[in-house]
Amino acid sequence: MRARIADGELLMMNFSRRDALKISAGLTLTTAAGSFSCLEVAKAGPIEVPTIDKLSVRVLVDSASDIFFKPKDVSGVRTEPGRPADPKRPLHSEWGLSLYLEPQRGDERKTFLLDFGWTPEAINGNMELLKLDASKLDALIISHGHFDHWGGLLGFLERHRRDMPADLTMYAGGEDNFCPRYVKMGGGGDLADFGTLDRRDIAKQNVKVVLCEAPVVIGGQAFTTGRITRSSIEKVLPNSLVGFQLKDGAGCNTSHYLPAEMEGKIVPDEHIHEHATCFNLKDKGLIVISSCGHVGIVNSVRQAMAVSGIDKVHAIMGGFHLGPAPADYLTQVVAEIAKLNPDVLIPMHCSGLNFTQEAQRQMPGKVLTTTTGTRITFGI
């Protein structure tokens, strides 16, 4: 693996399985030395992708609510409105994303929570109003290191950890997820702190962290893409900046995936270890969930196909980070998504109204919209 800096941007090259093995071995040694507690690294190598019969996805947190939302069926996928248990209390919508995933294989059911929204008030309040049971959770998944995807995590754990399994594991994309993030404020370009996910806070809640820089099977029913190869026309659109820093125990250890000269640098964020969460639905194909898609939704789906060996794509869903996309670029990306020929496309969070409208134009009859509280059922 190689990296270089050009015009202030971090450019990452593809890495081989041999590189991945070095990553795994190097960070395992760091863990063994006691630098980070409750942390493991996924082993590099092929995985056996499981097949499920059904999947229910509850949109626990997203940026919009709609009390007039109507059920809809497209290609064997059903969307239904989510109503709060107390009609005097609305579901809380905010910028961010959290999905409550319930796959089923035969009689075996699993429950995973993917991302945690911006605030604990939103995720905890909506869990209560939708009567979702934290004690059923088999695993937690975090997609990448942006605050609007993990900001509610620690408050969620404080509220619900005692009810969840003692051996609870959280699957993170990789070491990059724990780097500090910054955003530019005002016309002067001053940097503001956009949060650092401190793994010590997770360890205090007795949650083990597995770094999924290589693909991983979760709970025998889901799988992650691992680090996503960037091979399409897509580019990382402007978002945060990232600091490759480890200070007073917080931050990220970049020694195993970046050259030494990158230590301490703050650069435009390329989300090196963002990953997608995926399912293989029996007789239908892949369901690929991209929580924010900074590295490209086409890249993410291609990675899921390569990892699984499955070419049929049933559904692409989640945040695609195309809200800030220029019109000509957006048109190109949607055309590339159309070539993947998914049965349904379900944009959320940062995808943008511009994306939804362009997708509806190029892929008529395939786009399903959702709001906070929506239940999406696959395999009906």
UniProtKB/TrEMBL annotation:
It comes from the Bacteria. Residues 107-160 form the Metallo-beta-lactamase domain. CDD domains: DHPS-like_MBL-fold (cd07713). Pfam families: Lactamase_B. InterPro entries: DHPS-like_MBL-fold, Metallo-B-lactamas, Metallo-beta-lactamase_dom, RibonucZ/Hydroxyglut_hydro, TAT_signal. Gene3D superfamilies: Ribonuclease Z/Hydroxyacylglutathione hydrolase-like. This is MBL fold metallo-hydrolase.
